[in-house]
Fold:
Amino acid sequence: MVLLAALIPILMLAAVLALGRYEEVMLPEPEGDRLEPAALPTAASPAPAGTPAPSP
Structure:
């Protein structure tokens, strides 16, 4: 029984990983749906305004 209790989670994890690989192979991501890389900022971002006011 202890062996069965130890093997079931391992086998279930293996099944989930195998199904994930199967999905990647059978349903590849279309080229048009990929996200474009983020644009680089053109100007330097402003610095913080300074230290905040102390709380009352």
Notes: The two ends are 63 Å apart (CA to CA). Helices lie at 2-26. The chain has one helix and no strands.
